Amino acid sequence: MDVFRNGDRFYDFEEVLKKIREYEIATNTNFYRRDSRTIAAARKRGIKRNIKPELLFYSITFALLSDIKYPPKLSRKGRPKGSEKTVIGITKKSKRHHLQPFFKKSSGIKELAILQWILGDEKGKTVFENKEKVFQNEVQDLAFSSALVDESVDLLIVEKFFTKEAMIDVMSVVMRNKENSFHKCGSCTMDLTLTTNVVKCSSCLGWNHLPCVFLKTVPKAKHWYCKRCKQINK
Predict the structure, then answer these.
(1) Cα torsion through 22, 25, 28, 29, rounded to 10
(2) Residue 113's pLDDT band (boundaries 50, 70, 90)?
C-alpha cells in the first residue's frame, strides 16, 4: 500500500500525522517521536539504541520521509525584486563594490594589478585584455611599483604574459628591490622606510606617509584603504 506518493501536499501538521499513522498500520511500522534534553532523560523515556556519552543533546522527531512537498511560500509584499526605485518612489543608489584586501581578490584582478605595477596602467591593461606576450626589451628601464615587493604578491601568476627572458628580468628587479627595501609614498612619491609614521593600503598595497593621508597615528583597524581605492570602488 502506497500511503505516501511523490507529489503529495500537506496543508497542516494534522494531515502529516494522519498519513504517518496510516503508513504505520499499512506497513506494520512504528515511528518514534522523542525530544529529551539530556542523555539521562532519554534513557528514562525508554530509548533502546546506544547513545555516545559525549553527546549532550539529541532530538529525534520522525524517520526520514522523502519526496514530501510542502505548500509553496507566499510571495512577500513590497516593491518587486530588481526595482530601480524605493517604496516611496525615490531612485535607488547603486550599490558600492566592497573593498577587499589584495590577498582576497580574484586571480584575474590580481593579474591585472600586477601587470599594471610592472608595465604601467595603460600597457598593463592592454596586455591583460589582449593576452599579449611581453618581451625582454619591453621591461627594461621601467619604474616598477613598490607594491611588487609585498609578500602577498605572487609574480608567477603573470608568468604566462612574459617571455622567459623578460620574466627573469622582472624577477631580478623585484628581488633587488626587496633587498633594498624599496618603497615610495603613494601620495608624495618620495622614498620612505617601513619604520614609523607610515601606513599601507590593504587593497593596492601602496605605502603612504601618515601626514600625506591626513592621519596622525596608524589606524587600529585590521585593514586600511587609501582615498584612491575608495574612489575607484564608489
Answers:
(1) 40
(2) very high
Quick: pLDDT tens for 61-106. 444 444 555 566 666 665 555 566 666 667 766 555 578 899 899 9
CA 147, 153, 157, 160 torsion-angle sign: positive
**Domain extents for the chain?**
1-72, 97-234
Residue 9 φ then ψ, to 5°: -125, 145
Q: Integer distance in angstroms from the first to the last C-alpha of the chain?
A: 63
Which is the CATH superfamily of the domain at 97-234?
Zinc/RING finger domain, C3HC4 (zinc finger) (3.30.40.10)
Distance CA 208, CA 190 (A): 9
3-class DSSP state for residue 18? helix
Residue-wise pLDDT for 167-191, tens only, equals 999 999 888 888 887 778 888 878 7
Place of cell 608568468: 159
pLDDT one-digit tens code per residue, 187-223: 887 877 766 688 889 998 988 888 888 888 888 888 9
H or E segment to which residue 199 belongs: strand 198-200
Our CA dihedral for 81, 83, 88, 94, rounded to 10 degrees, sits at 110
Alpha-carbon distance 53 to 35, whole Å? 17
Per the confidence metrics, is the pTM higher than 0.85? no
